[in-house]
Amino acid sequence: MSISSAFNLASSGLRVTEARADLVASNIANASTAGYTRREGTQVSGGGQSVDLRMVRQIDDRLAAMSRDASAALGKASVGGEVLRGYLSTLGDIADEISPAARMATFQAGLDLLANNPSNPSVQADVLARADMLVRSLNTASNALEDSRTQAGASFESAAGEVNTALSDIANLNARLLGQTAGTSGFSSLMDEMNQRLDALGSQMDFKSRWEANGTLSLFTAGGTELVNGTDAARLSVDRQSGAIIADGTDLTPDRPGVRGITAGRLAGLSQMLSTVIPQMKLQQDELARGLVEGFEAADSSLMAGQPGLFTDAGAAFDPAQRDGLAGRLSINAAVRPDAGGALWRLRDGMSAATPGDAGATAQINAFITAFDTARPIATDAGLGSSARLGDMAANMVGAQHTIRVIADRAAGTAGIRLAAFEDGRSTVEGVNIDTELQKLLEIEQSYGANSQVLNSLSNMIDTLLNAV
Length: 469
What we know:
Layout: H1 3-29, E1 39-45, E2 51-57, H2 61-91, H3 100-116, H4 121-177, H5 185-204, E3 207-211, E4 217-221, E5 226-229, E6 232-233, E7 236-239, E8 244-247, E9 250-251, H6 266-299, E10 311-313, H7 326-329, E11 330-332, H8 346-349, H9 363-373, E12 376-377, E13 387-388, H10 390-430, H11 434-468
Domain Flagellar basal body rod protein N-terminal: 8-37
Family: Belongs to the flagella basal body rod proteins family.
Domain Flagellar basal-body/hook protein C-terminal: 431-467
């Protein structure tokens, strides 16, 4: 090897050592920077005359993809608790005295007491109070569920906005990556930004990605619909009433037959909440209210066709065409309210009785009690079976609705554990370990000293040769 060749190698070695020191310093300085991926330097030969340093980001794409899938699963499962927590606390559990199931049992017990004291005004007033509490429990639950629907709708639109921002940012990053050279500082910084956008997107929806030959990233839904192609990004729009998700005219709504859409993430969870879960809960409420209205109409022998019974639809008899929202409109017939011109004795004699009957009569009261023992038909899409007694229907409704959150919380717990495991693995690969970086500085110092010694020896050799001439 000639002296000039040795000199070039030693000089390039010093430059590489300096670049390695800069990399280590950058790693240490950004150890706590969100989204920063550890850099490593790989030495490459420069044609036998020099050495160069190539920067490599430490990342495991497969582990990152699994982490984002777990994040999407957690995002979807967390929606149940996020949206339903307030409503379910208002609804109460089966054993809670505020729940419709408990209020139903309390009202039935009051009718039993009235059957033993049919003419006692205080017992009659107590039955009316219990009926009021039952009605209020359903009214309150209906209003709380509507509030949850409103909250879910707002979150749905917000999530879609975050997805649109992330997709647009990814397309913009693609445009900036086109002018970059792999292995440079600028390229690595852009890749860190891309990594952050993908992680943020992962909690909102599941997706697939593919790096193209030109260095840009293409993005697709789990079903295969294109979201980002080079510098072009799809734009999502949502319908908070139906839970539909549309991307530039293409349906992405979860669980729709033939749709190549999304299956996980907060966006999917909120879509299902608006399209399926909350509507079914609302239907269950309305079916229970219908059972009360129809059951007590059928049990009241004083009524003519079209007249309202004890439980009414805002004062009117049940109208099959007006079932939607019935739980929120459920009310007690004014005919039994003294403060509205009614009379408590109608709880004994029937809502349309013109005058008080026998003070000791119990036939009508027993007919009301029998209404609780008669199985009422239930709409099949309510998810509570085809028929049930009123008390069982109330208990089944409360139990089924709490089960939805229990299942969601269990799924969130499982997804959270998976996400933590994957994130720990990513941290090992991508994160900066200060102790390791400091050890590298010692190695760099030794390498710098070795290259300096070579240059010093070459300088002495040249001086000796010059002095010999």
